[in-house]
Design a protein that fits this description.
The complex is a heterodimer of chains A (225) and B (289).
Chain A: E1 2-7, E2 13-18, E3 27-31, H1 38-45, E4 53-55, E5 57-58, E6 61-62, H2 71-75, E7 78-82, H3 93-102, H4 108-122, H5 137-149, E8 155-159, H6 167-182, E9 186-191, H7 194-200, E10 203-208, E11 211-216, H8 219-224
Parallel strand pairs in A: 3-9, 3-10, 7-8, 8-9
Antiparallel strand pairs in A: 1-2, 1-4, 5-6, 10-11
Chain B: H1 2-18, H2 20-57, E1 59-64, H3 70-81, E2 86-92, H4 94-104, H5 109-114, E3 123-128, H6 134-142, E4 147-150, H7 154-195, H8 198-206, H9 211-248, H10 257-287
Antiparallel strand pairs in B: 1-3, 1-4, 2-3
Classes of the chains: A alpha/beta (225), B alpha+beta (289).
C-alpha cells in the first residue's frame, strides 16, 4: 500500500496516508482499537473498496486500475475468514467448503480431492457431513478456514477470527493460521486480542485513527530479549 | 459454455429446493398474480367480442318507394357494396316483408289481411364496418330518389358508440394498472427471495466467483419460479374457464379454446419473463459495487 488514503462518502476518513508492505510468506498482525481502520485495510485488499488516494498493489497489480471482470481473478488468490464465520446454514461442512470451488467453476473431480485436503488441514474430516449448527464455534471457524483455503490462496486474511471464541479455542485457531503460514501462504490477521499477539511474536502493525503508529517486525522481539 | 449452463441450472434447482419456503412463497405469489391477470384478460376478451358483435348489429335500414324500379334498386345495392364503410347489403322485398310481419305479429294478421294491397315497403338493410359511419351512409341513401325514408337511429347509435368506447378504454386502463401492480408485486417477492440469500451472494463474491457465476443461477431460478407459476396458473385456468363458459353461452361470442391458447402463451411468457427480469435486477444490485 503506497500513500493510501481512504475516505467514505459520509465524510469519515478511515485511513490517512498509509504505507504498508507485506512481503510474500509473511505473518502479520493488524492491531488497533475498533474504528482504527483495520477493516478498511482488508476491504481495500480484497477490492471491496477502492482507495481514495494512493495505490494498493497485490501481487504487483494495482487494484485501483483493475477491470471489473478481473476482480474475481484477484480474489481467487485470497482466502478470507471473518469473526462471524459466514457459513451457509443449510449446507454440510463438506458442501460449505466445496461451495467456494463450485462457484468459480472448478470441475467436480477436482473439488472432492481439494475439499478432502482442506478438511484434513483444519482437522474436520470426521465432521464433514454435519451442519454448521451442529458444530462448536471453533469447529465453525475451522470450516470457514477450510473454505478460505480450498482454492490454494497466496494471501490468507483473517478479520477478528477469534472474536467470538474463548481463549483456548482462539489459541487453536492461531496455531492453525501459523501452520497455514508455514505452508507458504502469506497471512494477515486483524485482531485486538493483545495476549495472542505478544505470545506469537510475529510482525505487528498497529493502526490508530487511520495511521500506522507502530510497525514492529518479528526480529524486534529478539532484541528486546 | 455448456458446462456453465448445466452448472447454472443445477445450482438454480438446488437453490429452488433448498430455500423451500421462499420458493413456495414466490411461486404462490406468481400463481395468484397470473390468475388475476389472466382472468381479467379473459373477461376483457369476452367484453371486446361482445362489443364487436353489438357493433355489427348496427344496420342502416332504408325503405324503398313502391314506385322505384327494380333496376334502380339493384344499382343502389351495387354502389352501396362499393362503399368502403359497408360490409354487407341485404334486400328485403315487399312479399318477404309481408311474410315477416305475419310471422312476427300473428295476432294482427286480420288487420293486414283486410287491406286491399300489401302495405309493407321493400327495404335495404346495410351492415357497417364502423357504427360511426352511420351518418355518412344514411345521408347518401336519403339523396337517392328511390329511397322513401331512412330509419333514424342516430341518437341510439351515438349513445352506443360512446358506451362502447368507454368500456373499451376502461378495459385497457384497468388491464394496464393491474398489469403494473402484478409486475411490481412479483418483482418484489423475487427480490425478497434474493435478499434472503445475501450471505450466499457475499460469500460467492469473496471467494472470487465471477459475476456470471453469481447471476445466472439466480436468473434461472427466477425462470423456474415463473415457469412453475405459469404452468400451475394454466392448470387452474382450464377447469375454471370450463366451469364458467356455459354461463357465457348466451353471449353471441365464441369464448372457446382459441382464447385459452392465447392466454396460456401470454401467461407462460409473462411468468417466465417477469421471473427472469426480476431475478436479474435483484442480483444486479449486489454485483454492481
Amino acid at each position: 500500500m503506497q500513500g493510501v488514503t481512504k475516505s467514505y462518502p459520509n465524510g469519515r476518513v478511515a485511513l490517512r496516508d498509509v504505507d504498508l508492505v507485506i512481503p510474500e510468506g509473511d505473518f502479520v498482525f493488524l492491531v488497533g482499537p475498533s474504528g482504527a481502520g483495520k477493516s478498511t485495510v482488508i476491504k481495500l485488499l480484497i477490492r471491496d473498496e477502492l482507495a481514495t488516494k494512493g495505490a494498493v498493489l497485490l501481487d504487483g497489480r494495482d487494484l485501483g486500475k483493475l477491470k471489473r471482470r478481473d476482480v474475481p481473478k484477484i480474489r481467487r488468490k485470497i482466502g478470507i475468514v471473518f469473526q462471524d464465520f459466514k457459513l451457509l446454514p443449510n449446507k454440510s461442512v463438506r458442501d460449505n467448503v466445496a461451495f467456494a470451488l463450485e462457484v468459480i467453476g472448478t470441475p467436480r473431480r477436482e473439488i472432492t480431492s481439494a475439499v478432502d485436503r482442506a478438511l484434513r488441514v483444519v482437522g474436520l474430516t470426521g465432521q464433514a457431513d454435519q451442519l454448521p449448527s451442529q458444530l462448536s464455534g471453533g469447529e465453525q471457524q475451522r470450516t470457514a478456514i477450510a473454505r478460505a483455503l480450498v482454492h490454494n490462496p497466496r494471501l490468507f486474511i483473517a478479520d477478528e477470527p477469534t472474536g467470538n471464541l474463548d481463549p483456548l479455542i482462539s489459541w487453536e485457531i492461531i496455531q492453525l493460521l501459523l501452520r497455514i503460514n508455514e505452508m507458504g501462504v502469506t497471512v494477515l490477521m486483524a485482531t485486538h486480542n493483545a495476549e495472542v499477539v505478544t505470545a506469537v511474536r510475529k510482525r505487528v502493525v498497529a493502526l490508530e485513527d487511520g495511521r500506522i503508529v507502530r510497525d514492529q517486525v518479528a526480529a524486534a522481539y529478539e532484541r528486546e530479549g | 459454455m455448456i458446462a456453465f449452463i448445466a452448472f447454472s441450472f443445477r445450482r438454480a434447482w438446488q437453490g429452488f429446493r433448498r430455500n423451500g419456503l421462499m420458493s413456495v412463497a414466490a411461486t404462490a405469489t406468481m400463481v395468484l398474480m397470473l390468475v388475476l391477470l389472466s382472468s381479467l384478460m379473459i373477461l376483457l376478451t369476452g367484453l371486446n367480442a361482445t362489443l364487436k358483435s353489438v357493433e355489427d348489429e348496427v344496420q342502416v335500414v332504408a325503405y324503398m318507394r313502391d314506385s322505384a324500379p327494380q333496376s334502380e334498386i339493384s344499382d343502389l345495392q351495387t354502389s352501396l357494396r362499393n362503399m368502403p364503410q359497408v360490409t354487407q347489403v341485404g334486400y328485403v322485398s315487399k312479399d318477404q316483408a309481408y311474410n315477416d310481419f305475419v310471422t312476427r305479429h300473428p295476432d294482427q294478421v286480420d288487420v293486414i289481411k283486410s287491406l286491399p294491397n300489401n302495405p309493407m315497403p321493400a327495404s335495404l338493410r346495410i351492415n357497417l364496418r364502423d357504427p360511426k359511419d352511420y351518418v355518412d351512409v344514411a345521408a347518401y341513401l336519403k339523396n337517392n330518389p328511390g329511397v322513401e325514408r331512412v330509419l333514424n337511429i342516430k341518437q341510439t347509435v351515438d349513445q352506443m358508440v360512446t358506451v362502447i368506447n368507454v368500456l373499451r378504454v376502461g378495459g385497457v386502463v384497468i388491464l394496464l394498472v393491474v398489469g403494473l401492480i402484478v409486475l411490481f408485486i412479483i418483482v418484489n417477492t423475487i427480490r425478497l427471495a434474493v435478499v434472503s440469500r445475501a450471505d450466499e451472494i457475499e460469500i460467492m463474491r469473496l471467494v472470487g466467483a465471477s459475476d456470471a457465476f453469481i447471476r445466472w443461477p439466480f436468473v434461472f431460478e427466477g425462470a423456474i419460479v415463473g415457469l412453475l407459476g405459469a404452468l400451475i396458473t394454466i392448470g387452474l385456468l382450464f377447469p375454471i374457464t370450463a366451469l364458467v363458459s356455459p354461463y357465457f353461452k348466451v353471449l353471441p361470442v365464441e369464448a372457446g379454446l382459441a382464447v385459452g391458447q392465447n392466454i396460456a402463451l401470454i401467461v407462460l411468457g409473462s411468468g417466465v419473463g417477469i421471473g427472469v427480469v426480476g431475478s436479474y435486477l435483484s442480483v444486479r444490485s449486489y454485483l454492481h459495487r
